[in-house]
Amino acid sequence: MKKQIFGLGLFLISITFTSCNDFLTLDPLDTVSYSPDFWDKESNIRLSTLDFYTTYFPGYRSGWSRADWFADTNVADWTDDIAQLKATFFTKVAPVSTRGSGWDFDNVRALNLQIHSIEKSALNDEAKKHWLGVSRLLRGMEYASLVEKFGDVPYYADTIAQKNYNTLYKARDPRTVVMDKVLDDFNFAVENIRVSDGKPGLSINKDVARAFASRFMLFEGTWQKYREKNNEAAKKYLMAAKNFAESIMNEGKYKLCNNYKDLTTSIDLAGNPEVIMYRAYVESIVTHSLMAFQNTEHEEKAPSKSLIDSYLTKNGLPISQSGNNMFKGDKWFYDEIADRDPRLYANIDTTGIFLTGVVDVWAVSGYFGNRFVNESLKYLPGGTSSTCITDAPVMKYNEVLMNYIEAAAELSTLGAYNLTQKDFDKTINVLRDRPSTSMPHVTLDGGQLKVNGVVINDPKRDEDVSQLLWEIRRERRVELVFEGIRFNDLRRWSKLNYADMSLNPDLNRGAWVDKDRYVQWYNAKYPNKKPLTVENLKGVHLDGGGNSGYILPIKDKGKMRTYSEKDYLYPLPKDQITLYESRGFKLPQNPGW
């Protein structure tokens, strides 16, 4: 029985902070006095740190609130993985208010105070370094997230006096300056955080620090390469991403679990050899609703044709590759999914397509996503409400492997690393050896990837992307699908055009449906049900306009999502720009906003 959980808000820090979303209007940090009765006790610091867990390690969140898994949040929807009945548009205009904009330095303030207080504490040297490492890890994650969203941001490392306007209203620091500070925080954290602390899998330890550092450094390294065209900065951050990931791999502590789907449907992830960190859910204490979202609601946001087509056939080749006779075509659902990468079967319901007019719970693309559905709980209250208790993986070894191989491959394009077969044998080929996946190994030959001696040649490959990087990115997409990272992947690769429905037809496309054939099949399969007619399928709109074609989720082109260059960075709230101006300072808006 699960009893250990984190981040329930059971502890309220004894120092009171003024409640306000605007960092610049908070009471000055230097008026908060250091209290040795609190900060000299390691148990108090541990509890204080727990208050940050649900911010930085939210898992599936709780109740009816949703994290960026699968769909139904901006970050989850703004990708090429999801077809939608109503497109989730990129932000149209800059927000008027700071509230909800993401331009928020409350956590920076709180973490700087915690760091300042720990530095002054009477803890022994080992404990002090550990908790400073934990606090600096979280500060690094906070600033890395701010940079991911906004680019240049003001960097604050110290407490600030209320009237020190030159510091309070300082200019935005260049993102490389900030990310160098973040890397310093990560390096300190990895050097000083304990190998083991607290409950395994539920507490920050050295592996958690290294894994998250690899994620954030991979983002920044590729952003610098593709968006900033700064190869020197790219090499620095990519090398850090590679080294953080490799240090975990070399210790041999983690291995892949046997069943890929267990990672997202298990009632208890304790002891799972692949899970570096997870969030536990406990009946009547903290529960979530992600399974109910996939299990009981109409999937007006469902897997796209683009995503389905990205899964290889069982021989390791793209479905459109010339000579790939294993692919049986997509004009019948059961042919389409036959002999495919088994990870596809862990992410969609393979019993059939779910059409409006046929079933009560349907999917806008026909493909019904079910990665988070635990079959044993499917029809119980936990599967149909906000009382689900399946644990959420917060960080997994499979992502560490993907971070490593991508960073290594990118470094090789910059002349900073010699990529070899060994790199693939300890990453992608390990993933493909998972018993539930069992896909053929890739081999590196002259800068290209092969399977079983055949060069992988995807006719749908983006011409701007090398064959090698294209296949690494494909592997990342299918291995980590619906985990809330695809949007940032597209941003850092400078490929938000993939999420543009006007440029990517397969994003606004679902399964192929021949209504006459489907009706005939349905009535033969379910003779005891009320006979189905083509008229029942009138709500299934097809791109051909007749009785056969690909499902067309959005008919009105004016309602499809498009992107522009400004969408790579979030807009700053207007009230902050005005506040700066009122004090005689300038806070420039991001380009295009």
Describe this structure in words.
With 593 residues, the protein is mainly alpha-helical. Among the domains are: 1-58 and 94-202 and 564-593, Serine Threonine Protein Phosphatase 5, Tetratricopeptide repeat (Alpha Horseshoe); 82-91 and 300-368 and 442-562, no CATH class. The chain is 37% helix and 5% strand. The chain contains 22 helices and nine strands. It has helices at 36-39, 42-50, 53-56, 74-77, 106-120, 125-150, 165-168, 175-192, 206-228, 231-251, 262-265, 290-296, 305-310, 333-336, 381-384, 397-413, 421-425, 428-432, 467-479, 486-492, 515-525, 574-582, and strands at residues 82-84, 275-279, 301-303, 392-396, 443-445, 448-451, 454-455, 512-514, 548-550. Strands 5-6-7 form a three-stranded antiparallel beta sheet. Helix 6 (125-150) runs parallel beside helix 9 (206-228), helix 9 runs parallel beside helix 16 (397-413) and helix 9 (206-228) packs across helix 20. The longest helix is centred in the N-terminal third of the chain and has 26 residues, at 125-150. It is globular and about 75 Å long.
